[in-house]
Write a structure and sequence with these properties.
By secondary structure, the chain is mainly beta. Helix content is 0%, strand content 52%. The termini are far apart.
Length: 124
């Protein structure tokens, strides 16, 4: 069993930065992956970035590539999402997720555990 708790959301102006954190309690095995998703009102939940624990490999959605960075502090069992050059279209509830590695990392159904979410609002 894994519990995930996100923090770090807030309101910023376009061009600003935020750093989201996700503290995991419970065992995160090397066969797992951890990801950030986001969901704006009226839209489907979309994958933002994933980190494969075994190889420390990251994949990003095209919409955030070059602006967001996913990383993990193994000692603190914490996942991060550094978000730079934020745009109004990045506004959404951001969720941390974890699960056993599956092919389609961007599918929410491929994750076993979810955090409660943290709100990010970017104003123009």
């Amino acid at each position: 069993q894994v519990t995930l708790v996100e923090s770090g959301g807030g309101s910023v102006q376009a061009g600003g930065s935020l750093r989201l954190s996700c503290v995991a309690s419970g065992q995160i095995w090397s066969s797992y992956y951890m990801a950030w998703f986001r969901q704006a009102p009226g839209k489907e939940r979309e994958g933002v970035a994933v980190l494969y624990i075994a190889g420390n490999t990251a994949i990003y959605a095209d919409s955030v590539k070059g602006r967001f960075t996913i990383s993990r502090d193994n000692a603190e069992n914490t996942l991060f999402l550094q978000m730079d050059s934020l745009k109004p279209e990045d506004s959404a509830m951001y969720y941390c997720a974890a699960g056993m590695e599956r092919r389609a990392w961007e599918l929410p159904s491929n994750y076993n555990w979810w955090g409660q979410g943290t709100q990010v609002t970017v104003s123009s």
